[in-house]
Amino acid sequence: MLSLFLRSGRTRAGVVTVLTASAMVLTACVTNEETGHPDGWEELDIAAVPEIAAMVPPQISERGTITVGTNVPYAPAEFKDSDGEIIGFDIDLARAVAQVMGLELELADQDFSLILPSVSAGTVDFGASSFTDNEERRESYDFVDYLYAGIQWTAQTGHPVDPDDPCGLTVSVQRTTVSETDDINPKSEACVRAGREPITKLAYDSSDGAATALVLGRADAMSSDSPVAAFAVARADGKIETAGELFDASPYGWPVPKESPLGPALAAALQHLIDSGDYARILGFWGIEHGLIETAQINGEPYRP
Asked: Which residues does the UniProt record annotate as the domain Solute-binding protein family 3/N-terminal (predicted)?
């Protein structure tokens, strides 16, 4: 079903005033162009763990590489630096679990809608692209969950907004994310039903475009995944701040084929990184302080060796 292949949500029609825009027409960028890794970032050299490497399916372990499908840009999870290299916390975590399994990581930059079919076809081994693990997707895939993220609003500093009272506001979002389909669209519909002004939605192809619109004052607020919000605030030189509390938290997961032994291998590698502290270090490099897990999960349940 089409809804399986959207980044983090389901497409749903709504009564919304829509202004479709592109970041290409803006004169500034919240990140002032992504030049590379954050200050303090380190490339970790993580040793393989033989008992975890032995869990890897033979067709993967024999070739010595593991291929992950990802889609850019979605900073800080996955995006390209000024040299065109794909970086981000999703990439760093995927590379770390590959190292624990004794493998080299290979990246396949794909349209987001093609990643899950590629996992099914075996052209990539798993996906690492901020996939929300939900019941619908679990019908066809297993998910190794590695981080909880929710929806977080941001606003211009000194101009607070209330996500629970959004009628009449102009809000920027990345198109087809949960922020658009499960947050802004339903809230705008509720405004109309109450006889109030709908939300004016600025829909962008990238999270960077949505954040830039807020920084420039084209939007009153931005709705985004919490890691995206935190990254935007950190890069905006004090021009924007979070508004309200994080809500609708759900796990990000790595999709693998249903019942694949790769799922437990990934979960075991992730648990090793959690126990060693490298998991928290990697996310800390990217400013991710909330939503960290203490136990690796498969389909929302704690992984038990």
From this structure: 65-290
